[in-house]
Amino acid sequence: MATGLYGISFGALAVVAGLSVAQTAALSLLLFSGGSQFALIGVVAAGGSPVAAVATSTLLGARNMLYGAVVSPLLSLSGWRRLGAAQLTIDESTAVAVGQRTPAAVRAGFWATGIGVFVLWNVFTLVGALAGDALGDPRAWGLDAAAGAAFLALVWPRLAARTAQLVAGLAVVVSLALVPVTPAGVPVLAAAAVAVVVGLVAPPARPSLRTGGGA
Amino acid sequence: MTTTVLWVTVLVASAASFGLKLAGHLVPEHWLATERVQRTSTLVTVALLVSLVVVQTFTDGSSVVVDARVPALAVAAVALALRAPFILVVVLAAGSAAALRALGWG
Lengths: 215, 106
Fold this sequence. Notes:
The complex is a heterodimer.
Chain A: H1 2-17, H2 21-31, H3 34-45, H4 50-75, H5 80-87, H6 91-98, H7 103-135, H8 143-155, H9 162-178, H10 186-201
Helix pairs in contact in A: 1-3, 1-7, 1-8, 2-7, 3-4, 3-8, 4-6, 4-10, 6-7, 9-10
Chain B: H1 3-26, H2 29-32, H3 35-58, H4 69-81, H5 86-102
Helix pairs in contact in B: 4-5
Transmembrane segments (chain B): 39-58, 70-100
InterPro entries (chain B): Brnchd-chn_aa_trnsp_AzlD
Protein name (chain B): Membrane protein
């Protein structure tokens, strides 16, 4: 249910950002990672370059690579099934898979969650895109404010750790400072660069795989 | 962006997303299991999302702007603190901005 409603907001916001209904549907089918998809349309909406849009989306998808490394040994797949599993490797499927106790339950949890989220996400993206197309002026409906709220909702569960709060504060300062002086899209990438530096120099904390919030 | 440029952006980003996912499945797990890699990945995610909040709420893309989106974000933050579901957070924010504009502000 949460995935469906989240998909509707993505579909509507993507159309508001300037994508066609077909492009919006293609993102959910092919890119299939909620945070990355929202990031891509966010940069497009702000007038950023294609390179900045792809870079921001890809950086946000980097965590899926870590998820892949975690679930791959648990699933022990080969051939085309591995390609399918790769496409379905997202926050939700990984969280459900690693939460199971037996290898059979891991596999069942991964596939059921991955396929279920994929179907819901794509159906409701289309519903949202068609609705967004019919709405008209996005500002009158407050849809430009909805985008910021969507990103805040995605980051909210990730702000528990002290280091994350520090990075969040730095990201605010860097973004506000750079917006007036750099092309659109660059402030977001600069904030990511600051996070890389903090990640490399900060003292080690307890290791954990953080999941949650979004497809 | 033109339609063609948007399509290229969509397809290149999709290919990159799938490439990362597949790479995760193919590389030996211990390559990515280091504490530093995990932590940096988490922090990059936080920085990107927070920066997107800022760009979407406090700017028009090229300058800092305060309008109806700012109180709308505050409403979203309160809703999140009260553990509201995603869609309610988004709808409350949109509704707040729309209401303020209907009243003639922002």
